[in-house]
Amino acid sequence: MLSFNFAGKDSYLDYGILITSRPTIPSPKRRVSYIDIPGRDSSLRYDEGSYEDITIVAQCSITAENIIQKIDEITAWLFNSGESDLIFSFQNDKKYIAQVANSIEFKQVLRYSSKFIIIFNCRPFKYAVSNNVITITQNGTNLINPGTIYSLPKIYVYGSGDITLKINGNEIKINGLSNKIIVDCALYDCYDDNLNNLNSKFSGTFPVLKVGNNIIEWTGNVSKVEILPNWRWL
Fold first, then answer.
1. CA angle at residue 112 from 107 to 117, to 5 degrees?
2. 26 & 69 share domain
3. What mean pLDDT is reported for the chain?
4. pLDDT at 101
5. Domain shared by 112 and 43, yes or no
6. What is the CATH number of the domain that holds 74?
7. Are the beta carbons of 207 and 167 closer than 8 angstroms?
8. Top-confidence range, 34-38, 84-88, 99-103, 174-178
9. Quick check: 176 pLDDT over 80?
């Protein structure tokens, strides 16, 4: 039995929806521009180092005595959820960040049955469902990225004074830390628990966690470093 979880709701348990055939999962397309130059063989390539969104098509069916009411509930759920986590039952340890992209047509098959297609527009990568904070207290700790592409973590640094944090040799400097700073590598932003801007205390390049080994080091008065890793897969 194939189903999916979207915005915290289970398609089968909450709405009686089944996926009738396993959807095809495409890999993301890398953004590369090609420039043709007269008289030159081949093309010049400009690789942006980024990926395009993907589309996943789910063919679904539902059987219910109150089919019209159930369709109304399904429509409200899918469209009111906006961009949310999407988890398929055949890979329930990974999630997509997705949004319904089509106008859904419910085709009546029998008196109490309907078939329909849901098209999900998804961000390029799969993410770990269990995205737990990793606490590091030992300088020089090796953190292993199990994904297939670098991740953009959220890093919580606890300490005081001037601190240098180094990840795989990439140094970032934090000046005049009083207690804690949150370094958000996805948003390229630094702030505290109250979302007060702390970018003035930060200098350097926002780090990434590459696939495989990542050495976490620091100098200065650091009590601990917490990392929300945001592991992801192509």
1. 30
2. yes
3. 93
4. 92
5. yes
6. 2.40.30.200
7. yes
8. 84-88
9. yes
User: Average of pLDDT values for 81-94?
Assistant: 95
Quote the domain boundaries for residue 60: 4-126
What is d(CA 61, CA 114) in angstroms, rounded to the nearest whole number? 6
User: How many domains does the chain fold into?
Assistant: 2
The pTM of this model reads 0.85
What would the two tokens of residue 183 be?
A: 């370094």
Pairing of strands 107-110, 180-184: unpaired
CA distance 136 to 142: 10
Rounded Cα distance between 17 and 84, Å, is: 18
Q: Contact, 156 vs 222, CB < 8 A?
A: no
Binned at pLDDT 50, 70 and 90, residue 113 comes out as confident
Two tokens, residue 52: 């395009």
Domain's final residue, options 107, 126, 145 = 126
Mean pLDDT across the stretch 177-182?
Answer: 92
- DSSP class of residue 149 equals B
Q: What CATH number does the domain containing 143 carry?
A: 2.60.120.860
CB atoms within 10 A of CB 163: 22
The answer to whether residues 25 and 112 belong to one domain is: yes
Regarding whether 90 and 14 lie in a shared domain, the answer is yes
Which string of b and e fits 213-225 if b means at least 16 CB within 10 Å? ebebbbeeebeeb
pLDDT-wise least confident of 28-32, 106-110, 150-154, 221-225: 106-110
